[in-house]
Amino acid sequence: VQLQASGGGLVHDGGSLRLSCAASGSIFTINIMEWYRQAPGKQRELVASITNGGMTNYADSVKGRFTISRDSGKNTLYLQMNNLKPEDTAVYYCGATRGRLAPYYWGQGTKVTVSS
Predict the structure, then answer these.
(1) Which 3 state secondary structure label does DSSP give 58?
(2) CA separation (Å) from 104 to 32, 71, 87, 95, 107?
(3) Mean pLDDT over all residues of the chain?
(4) How confident is the model at residue 74, as a pLDDT?
(5) Which of 48, 54, 62, 92 has its CA 20 to 30 A from that of 85?
(6) Residue 112, exposed/middle/buried by CB under 10 A (0-12, 13-18, 19+)?
(7) Beta bridge partners of 17
């Protein structure tokens, strides 16, 4: 499985961005797709996840502001980020797996910078 993230950039406080993650390869093996982020000097943290069945989960810090979705026809994962805050500044990574005991696939990061 190969993942290609895009859509990062520089926005002002309160702005919006939509990240995309295009998946290719053996994507039929994937059940869970996720977005993580890593801010400078901090550990990578889970931002949001979505299952094949459409179940979603969000970090408390982004609930109500971020929306994860996937377009199975386009094999693409999205993260709509609204009301961005400076503390959302990080490199965002998409990830995918069949399950918690299965291999985990990472895309390259896309940088999001929110200026105050």
Answers:
(1) strand
(2) 10, 20, 27, 7, 10
(3) 96
(4) 84
(5) 54
(6) buried
(7) 81
Which amino acid, residue 83?
N
Instruction: Give whole-number Cα distances, 31 to 62, 63, 92, 95, in Å.
Output: 22, 22, 20, 11
Encoded tokens for 56: 């979603």
Band (pLDDT 50/70/90 cuts) for residue 72 is confident
> Tokens at residue 112, please?
């999001």
36, two tokens:
């993580």
Token pair of 35 as six digits: 């977005």
CA dihedral (64, 70, 71, 75) positive or negative: positive
The encoded tokens of residue 116 equal 């105050």
pLDDT, position 37: 98
Label the pairing between strands 76-81 and 66-71.
antiparallel
* Residue 38, beta-bridge partner list: 91
